[in-house]
Specification:
The protein is an alpha+beta fold. It is built from four helices and six strands, in the order ααααββββββ.
Length: 150
């Protein structure tokens, strides 16, 4: 009896592929059984155990210097509710700023998110941040970081 060589190769390739898939599946489930166990505590419990963020340490890390760190604890003048502590400038529509509102602790704000109920962080530069009103189109505030003491 004569056999077709091409037909045998297609059968061999299909058989080999199925064998490889079966071996890979067995290896996956075998390693999954011996892998590290998932944490037993829910995520919410783990998040509660984290220490609170230190605004002064974040301000120093963002380049605010000692003058900016001191301004977090001092009350702000009436003329300005916002104090820019530090910036992380990236691409034109990316970045974040560390902003204190009404003399409270500074908190990080990403570009495009609300700073407080009315103002939105529009963009950040090398040492400045631009806030725009989410309700009024003409209201715009440019915040500059304090000058570093030399």
């Amino acid at each position: 009896m004569q056999t077709d060589a091409y037909r045998l190769w297609s059968t061999r390739i299909v058989t080999f592929s199925i064998s490889v898939l079966a071996a890979a599946s067995a290896m996956y489930w075998g390693l999954k059984g011996f892998g590290p166990a998932a944490p037993s505590a829910p995520y919410a419990v783990l998040a509660e155990q984290m220490p609170p963020l230190n605004a002064q340490a974040i301000a120093r890390a963002l380049g605010g210097g000692q003058a900016a760190v001191a301004s977090v604890s001092n009350p702000l003048p009436v003329s300005s509710r916002y104090d820019l502590i530090g910036v992380v400038a990236g691409q034109p529509r990316a970045g974040a700023a560390l902003i204190a509102v009404d003399g409270q602790e500074a908190r990080p704000v990403r570009v495009g998110t609300l700073v407080d109920n009315d103002m939105l962080l529009e963009s950040v530069g090398a040492r400045q941040a631009v806030l725009v009103s989410s309700t009024e189109t003409s209201k715009k505030i440019v915040l500059d970081m304090p000058k570093l003491a030399e």
